[in-house]
Amino acid sequence: MYQIIRREGFSDTTFLWEVMAPDVARSAEPGHFVMLRLHEGSERIPLTVADYDRDKGTVTLVIQALGKTTLDMRDHYQTGDSFADFVGPLGLPQHVSRAGHVVLVGGGLGVAPVYPQLRAFKAAGNRTTGIIGFRTKDLVFWEDKFGEYCDNLIVCTDDGSYGKPGFVTAALKEVLENDKPDLVIAIGPLPMMNACVETTRPSGVKTMVSLNAIMVDGTGMCGSCRVTVGNEIRFACVDGPDFDGHQVDFKELMLRQKRFKGEEATANTDYAHVCNVEKMLFEQNKHNYKKYKDLAPHATKMPERDALERSRNFKEVNLGYSMADALAEAERCIMCSKAACIEGCPVSIDIPRFIRHILVRDIDGALAVINESNLLPSICGRVCPQESQCEAQCVVGRKLESVAIGRLERFVGDNARPRKAAPPRFERGLGNVAVIGSGPSGLAVAADVLRYGCEVTIYEALHVVGGVLQYGIPSFRLPRDIISREVENLKSLGVKFETNKVIGKTFSVLQLMNEMGYDAVFVGAGAGAPSFLGIPGEFAGQVYSANEFLTRVNLMGGDKFPYLDTPVTLGKSVVVIGAGNTAMDCLRVAKRLGAPTVRCVYRRTEAEAPARIEELRHAKEEGIEFFFLHSPVEIRVDGDGNVRGMKVQKMMLGEPDEKGRRKPVPLDEFVELECDTVIYALGTKANPIVTKSTPGLELNKWGYIVADPVTQATSVPGVFAGGDIVTGGATVILAMGAGRRAARAIGAFLASNKTKWPITQADADAFVPPTPIGASPTPVPSEVPS
After folding, report:
1. What is the per-residue pLDDT for 235?
2. 745, 713 in Cβ contact below 8 A?
3. What φ, ψ does residue 115 adopt, rounded to 5°?
4. Measured between alpha carbons, how far is 297 from 300 in angstroms, rounded to an integer?
5. CA distance 131 to 191
């Protein structure tokens, strides 16, 4: 990074940077230029060296804000700021000799770069005349610096508001007539240099021009700066940038300079829009800044892999937003004053604020906002049912299609550059916390208690970290590298992971708290145990639970058998019972494993199916057959005990049940389905391994842990629980919400020196997290909904 040690403004558009760059300053000469890049993703621009100080190690640039990059330099960089790249010195220095009378002409952008050449020619013993031109008096700068080295200085203004009225060419013509020079140096915009060349051509005075403005790479690699000089192709960055202007084909050069005019205009328009949005949303903090009529009525579509192609492999189906997609979708957010979407998010992400950062192209800033509440945006952006949570509360959705918040969250998680993670340091540790299970609730609680000053260790029964994210969700929905990246971020923050540790077998909860010295324990072991119907034929070997089937493929690589060791057996016809997201995963995995016929059997209608609408659509596109309003009554087996079919009973919907869903009523009509594999995807039951080994831990009638819905505190002091082991099978983000609530309650418990039990909502709300050393006192947000 290179630091700006001095910034000086000459006018609304012209400003100076003095940059600390000792290596460049050591080698700089008059006529040299540098290539500058502000940050990742920005363009490389050529800038002529206006001055250099070898003793200080600095290089001075004078910039005119004309395009997107120079406007960004003007508006967003001050003394003390740093930027990414500063390459040089490049090009050939001006050949400085004792020529006699030298006239140096600088117009607009060329005033500053002509200065070091003026100084050098004067030092070489020449008589010097300086002609510098500006549009108006307000834009004049460095008149005193030029006067120090000029025997004669002429300042011109286009509007006549100061000095000699008119263009620099008029002043140059008078000098040619009255005091003919031996050499002319002209630096400025191409039209100005061309005009100077045509002014001196009749008199035959050699005129040197600088062509640094036409460069892109600056190192001789790209050829963009090619120019015809004396009927030969030359490259400004290597052979120049200074050439005999009478030999330069300016007509060709100016035609080539127009090739990106349209794009430059687009970039400038976009930059002006971003500046306006930044002013309204960040400086003025405006809300409801758009009208519905100005919004696109539908969400920006998610790019997807072709259905036929994807049904044959495990590559991710949803390809993610491009920058253009994300910006278009972010423009649909009106920044409403009462953001109901935040209330709909189980972990309370400040959704309008992260979208605000997207709008001004600050993707890293958007990630920082999300990370205040959620360290797993790439995961949640893929698998959370936003359409029934944050997007269901979106104000825009009352009249138009809701803003695609989940897609934007995924875009930020995938494309932002996360800050370099390091364990936070505190004056005094808050305590030592054990987390049972590395699924969503366990990862969420670990992230927060770590930020409260706790040491935290996650114990995972499997050989990989991630819990249901690893074994339950196929890679075409959640690529494994995404899970690994998010987990590695937690590791770098200081979370410790212990795999192959079955709590309840390897250690008990009481051992963790007594023998092993943990101050608090969070149980996020998941539900895990599969459910079956109890119908005839379930004993057959080709009958899988969804957990077994998906674990064999997702975790053990059964799709790669025999190249990997774990087999998964499928016949030619597969039936999956159920219509939730797990059922959709089973159906689509079976299709990818090559089963020609894959059917879904569900006892209600499609409208009642728990699966996400997108998952149902994807399954249909991939060739899955659906038997809605059908319920299995028997799995048919042959004499060897192999599955050969399924008997299903047709259903109709009756009155709503206690959950509000219409209850299926059987009809006296049956259908025989041929199949050789059956997969049960009917949800899960509580896994008893942890609960049976923990005396005093209160359970409900289904075997789930009883925990306070706000603090997640259980009946055992110091033990908290959340996720599926408390609620039964639910979503990733709901489990994370439980983890965040538990983390705050754990913080309150430890802050009381473990004297307060049970922890109440008031205790959790009153807890003020300690501030890490070197950080501003900004606590982790407490607005975690119950």
Report:
1. 81
2. yes
3. -60, -50
4. 9
5. 16
User: Among residues 555, 551, 522, which one has the least CA distance to residue 690?
Assistant: 522
In three-state secondary structure terms, 378 is helix
Cα-Cα-Cα-Cα dihedral of 133, 157, 45, 88, to 10°? 30
DSSP tally for the chain: helices H, then strands E: 27, 32
Contact 781, 348 (CB under 8 A): yes
Tell how far CA 290 is from the center of its chain: 25
> What pLDDT digit, counting tens, does each position of 529-572 carry?
788 999 999 999 999 999 999 999 999 998 988 888 889 988 89
Peptide bond into 717 cis (omega under 30): no
**pTM summary value:** 0.77
The answer to whether 588 and 622 have CB atoms below 8 angstroms apart is: yes
The sign of the dihedral angle between the CA atoms of 15, 21, 26, 31 is negative
For residue 718, give the nearest of 490, 449, 468 by alpha carbon. Answer: 449
The encoded tokens of residue 590 equal 């079976």
Q: 565 is written with which tokens? A: 């060791």
Distance CA 245, CA 422 (A): 56
* Planar angle of CA 499, 581, 522, nearest 5 degrees: 35
Name the token pair of 188. 């400025």
Beta-bridged to residue 530, according to DSSP, are 684
CB 226 within 8 A of CB 235: yes
Query: Phi/psi of residue 559, each to 5°?
Result: -70, -15
Length of the chain: 786
Strands of 609-718 (E only): list them.
625-628, 630-637, 643-656, 662-674, 677-680, 684-686
Task: Give the distance from CA 528 to its chain's centroid.
Answer: 33
| Position 260, amino acid | F
